[in-house]
Amino acid sequence: MKKLLSLMTLLAFTFGSLNTTAQRVKNTSGNKDILKSETDINIEFNYDDISVGKYKNEQEYITAKTDEYNKKEAGKGDTWAASWKRDKEARFEPKFIDLFKEQSGMNIVTSAKYTLIFKTTSIEPGWNIGISRKNAEIDAEVWIVETANKSNKLATFTINNVPGGTAFGYDFDTGTRIAEAYAKAGKSIGKSLK
């Protein structure tokens, strides 16, 4: 009984610490305190030139996975590819925005003086096949720009190896794991910038 109680305590501590670990947001240029007095911000997402897993670009990954799934079951790959593309706007961005707002206390408005551009540079989708699993991870650059002049980067940040997965491992869907990585990134960036 003591061994079981000790094991349960260890597991609870491990899962608790995994979910509360904040990712390090590194200021690479500009004034990291630029948003301290702001109450509003615009947020945009950039997915250009992403590497995915072992693939140098996203299109290679989509093509390979689509072919793999279509060989197993006709049409399954095409459905997967449509879901992969839809998940960015439908799942990843809302998760990021929700936790960013919660941590920063800022309102998200398109007319804000500043825009935060979240530029994903790489995605590791991870996997979960029941007996084996790996968290998703994302790397990104964050640019704070003037909304009226988005080419002018006032501050830049990086955030790397942001893990994505659910407690107790019920994240068999790739989109779920990646969405959790975006949520953690939003939380860490929101906390860091405000």
Question: Would you kindly provide a written description of the structure presented here, covering whatever features stand out?
Answer:
With 194 residues, the protein is of the alpha/beta class. It has one domain (24-193). It is 43% helix and 30% strand. The protein has helices at residues 2-20, 58-72, 76-104, 174-193; strands at 25-30, 40-46, 51-52, 107-108, 114-124, 127-128, 133-134, 136-146, 149-164. The strands form 2 sheets. Strands 1, 2, 3, 4, 5, 8 and 9 form a 7-stranded mixed β-sheet that branches. A hairpin with a 4-residue loop joins strand 6 (127-128) and strand 7. Helix 2 crosses helix 3 and helix 3 (76-104) packs parallel to helix 4. The radius of gyration is 19 Å and the shape is elongated. The termini are far apart. Mean pLDDT is 85; it is low at 1-21.
